[in-house]
């Protein structure tokens, strides 16, 4: 199993970023996928997920209406579109399957700051 997140960076409050997660080594189309994040000094927490059939799972009310998850099974990729970003969204963002595999990716850093 290999999971590689990308797309993070520094963005001003109110800005947008699109994260990508490329997965391999498992039957991607049969698994739900999630995005989690870990802010400095805090534990990793689930943010949003998508089932194998495209049903959206909202784990964190603070991102409702601002974050959108999508997937392409052909490309074995999950996306996280983040709009109206806030400083409190600053974190390392990770993706994984449902249930999660033991080997997490490196994550991608998102920093929201002026």
Q: What integer is the average pLDDT?
A: 97
Spatial gap, N to C terminus: 37 Å
Structural class: mainly beta
Question: How many strands?
Answer: 10
Please tell me what the overall shape is. globular
Strand order of the largest sheet: 2-10-9-4-5-6
Bin the strand percentage: over 45%
Radius of gyration from CA coordinates? 13 Å
DSSP summary: helix tally? 0
Helical coverage, percent range: under 10%
The largest sheet, given as strand count, sense and whether it forms a barrel, is: 6 strands, mixed
Query: Which regions contain 5 or more consecutive residues with pLDDT less than 50?
Result: none
Q: Can you write the helix and strand succession as a string? A: EEEEEEEEEE
Task: Summarize it.
The chain has strands at 2-6, 9-11, 17-24, 32-38, 45-50, 56-58, 67-72, 77-82, 91-98, 108-112. The protein contains no helices and ten strands.
Protein model, in words:
- The protein has no helices and ten strands.
- It has strands spanning 2-6, 9-11, 17-24, 32-38, 45-50, 56-58, 67-72, 77-82, 91-98, 108-112.
- The chain has a six-stranded mixed sheet with strand order 2-10-9-4-5-6, with no helix packed on it.
- A hairpin with a 6-residue loop joins strand 4 (32-38) and strand 5.
- The radius of gyration is 13 Å and the shape is globular.
- It starts with a strand and ends with a strand.
């Amino acid at each position: 199993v290999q999971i590689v997140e990308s797309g993070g960076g520094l963005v001003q409050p109110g800005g947008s970023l699109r994260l990508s997660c490329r997965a391999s080594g498992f039957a991607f189309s049969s698994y739900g996928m999630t995005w989690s994040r870990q802010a400095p000094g805090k534990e990793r927490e689930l943010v949003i997920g998508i089932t194998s059939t495209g049903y959206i799972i909202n784990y964190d009310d603070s991102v409702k209406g601002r974050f959108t998850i999508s997937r392409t099974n052909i490309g074995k990729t999950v996306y996280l579109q983040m709009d109206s970003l806030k400083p409190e969204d600053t974190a390392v963002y990770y993706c994984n399957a449902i249930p999660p595999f033991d080997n997490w990716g490196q994550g991608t850093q998102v920093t929201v700051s002026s």
